[in-house]
Amino acid sequence: MHKAKALLDSLMGPSRDQSQKEKSGDEFRDGNVCKYYLVGCCPDSMLGKKLEAIRTEFDRPSIISSQGCTKLHSVALKTDYQQHKDFERYRREYEELLLRYLENIVREADGKAAYEKRKREDMQIPWAYHEKLCDL
Questions:
Q1: What are the φ and ψ backbone dihedral angles of 33, each rounded to 5 degrees?
Q2: CA-to-CA distance for 9 and 15, rounded, in angstroms?
Q3: How far apart are CA 34 and CA 46, in angstroms?
Q4: pLDDT above 70 for 62
Q5: Is the pTM here over 0.90, yes or no?
Q6: 73: number of CA atoms within 13 Å, CB side?
Q7: Is 19 left (phi over 0), alpha (psi -120 to 50) or beta?
């Protein structure tokens, strides 16, 4: 039952039972809607479960959610967002949020890579040829 409701929400939006007069057109601004999805790229959805599958028990926690994105990805809300009169303002705001989030993800990945590199050098493990190419 829950999966059917989630599918309907993703296709038609959570306010699918309301008439057009009752809808405000600003439902995409709700806190449970993924703003990253609205601008076209949700890192949690794309990377979350994949990173969880390769994570070990010794890895530090990540800023990317291990369950994937828990917010609503709705085609109907994305359409409402794109047709909103203040679309450009919201697009700029949500893209800036996405940019900051992506910068944090890259910063975290760089920190983990540097930590692993230091750890490997401390253990005096020689580098293979293909691993050195990553250092360019």
A1: -100, 135
A2: 8
A3: 13
A4: yes
A5: no
A6: 13
A7: beta
Res. 129: pLDDT tops 90: no
User: What's the pLDDT at 136?
Assistant: 47
Contact, 7 vs 75, CB < 8 A? no
Q: How far apart are CA 41 and CA 46, in angstroms?
A: 8
Q: b vs e for 35-59, b when ≥16 Cβ sit within 10 Å of the residue's Cβ?
A: bbbbbeebbbbebbeebeeeeeeee
CA 83, 42, 11: angle at the middle one, nearest 5?
50
SS3 content of the chain, % helix, strand, coil (to 5): 60, 0, 40
Tokens 């900051």, located at residue: 100
Q: In the structure, what pLDDT confidence band is assigned to residue 117 with cuts at 50, 70 and 90?
A: confident
Residue 91 CB contacts under 8 Å (≥ 6 apart), including other chains: 39
pLDDT in tens, 68-87: 888 989 888 898 899 999 99
